[in-house]
Amino acid sequence: MSTPITFTFTTTLSLVIISVSLLSSSLGSVTATETQRNETEVRLMYEQWLVENGKNYINGLGEKERRFKIFSDNLKFIDEHNSVPNRSYEVGLTRFADLTKEEFRGTYLGSKIEMTRGSVVGERYLYKEGDDLPDHVDWREKGAVGPVKNQGYCSSGWAFSAIGAVESINQITTGELLSLSVQELIDCDRYFNYGCNGGFMNMAFKYIMEKGGIETDKYYPYTAIDRSRCKSNKNKNTRVGTIDGYEDVPRGDEMSLKKAVSHQPVSAAIYADGVAFRHYKGGVFNVTCGIGMTQAVIVVGYGSSQGKDYWIIRNSWGINWGEGGYMKLQRNVKDPLGKCGLTMMPSYPTKLAV
Q1: Sequence-distant (≥ 6) Cβ neighbours of residue 49 within 8 angstroms
Q2: If 329 and its partner were Cys, which of 26, 49, 228, 311 is the partner (CB 3.0–4.6 Å)?
């Protein structure tokens, strides 16, 4: 399990000096005229960011000052990036603004997600020439996507991705959107999955299918703690999130992924190990990135904006990242594995309508 960074969250902080209120209420973006900042301005932004993100460093002033230096370096990158005209996306002060790339990688990404054994490639969503697919799909508009959640100091994106897909297919087939237990997967699904050290979405689907469903989040709440004793209820009457099976989308096929997403949200893994990804705040993310799978997400739709095609992906880093926890990821790219490796390992649960 990853070692937590030495700070804690607090629900209440003292108000910072009144000068902070003179800054922009939104720290998410900057303009080309703001690339030169003096230390006083940066410190005021830092104090406001600490309050907005509920951060209080347990090691006192020394740790706070060390984090300020990291914050300043990240802010410099943000300013320089956003000063370049005609970018398709912007970066900003996300909740990770006080972390180095090594800390972020070790705490939130953990081990890379590898290709799973026993994959079952389905043909129900295999794209065929002549298939008529909608130009725009957003499952949030249809009430089939649960709220953005925060995985905390646990590399459990695989579990959030799998649970999100199961929540969605249950809503599509039953009309009821339930909040299901991520923690049950972390505690109990240990055959191929590794709790806070990574896992596989299709193996999570297999666990849910074989157990006859999964508990609700209310009954089995999220703690972000690894290696806890499995507290799953063996009474199937409480295992309300059920599926009938699971399949993989054909690998390296954006059109088949598009077809799949037109029918239901789909779990996928992407390469999220870049500084621009970490600080993403909005727009169509089109940066060159790797294809190693380091974070699992759920693809909840797709669309186009000003001639730029994109996927809508929901992450599990809370609402103070991206567009309220979402990203528009470039679609229709030359790489057959998709932007950031999105088409390397997409999968989805199946369930017959009731």
Answers
A1: 27, 71, 93, 97, 98
A2: 311
User: Tokens at residue 260, please?
Assistant: 């799949």
CATH code assigned at 124: 3.90.70.10
CA 126, 132, 136, 138 torsion-angle sign: negative
Q: Model confidence over 34-67: pLDDT tens digits?
A: 457 999 999 999 999 999 998 888 877 799 999 9
- The tally of domains found in the chain comes to 2
Q: Please tell me whether residue 53 adopts helix, strand or coil conformation.
A: coil
For residue 12, which amino acid is it? T
- Angle in degrees, 0-180, between the axes of helices 61-82 and 39-52, rounded to the nearest 10: 110
Does a structural domain hold residue 147? yes
CATH number for the domain spanning 86: value is: 1.10.287.2250
Tokens of 180: 């299901």
Measuring CA to CA, which residue among 328, 316, 331, 329 is closest to residue 153?
316
Residue 140 lies in domain: 109-350
Angle at 12 between CA 11 and CA 13, to 5 degrees: 130
Report which of 5, 270, 297 is spatially closest to residue 153, judged by C-alpha positions: 5
Could you read off the pLDDT of 104-161 as tens digits, one per residue?
988 888 554 555 555 788 889 999 999 999 999 999 999 999 999 999 989 999 999 9
Query: Are residues 38 and 151 part of one domain?
Result: no
Q: Which residues of 218-250 are buried (b: 16+ CB within 10 A; e: fewer)?
A: ebbebeeebeeeeebeeeeeebbbbbeebbbbb
Model confidence at 15: pLDDT above 70: no
Q: Residue holding tokens 């410190």?
A: 43
Is the residue at 1 inside a domain? no
What SS3 class is residue 91? strand
Q: Which structure tokens are listed for 79?
A: 């300013």
> Does a structural domain hold residue 38?
yes
Q: Provide, for the chain, the percentages of residues in helix, strand and coil under a 3-state DSSP scheme, each rounded to the nearest 5.
A: 30, 20, 50
Amino acid at 64: K
206 and 224 within one domain: yes
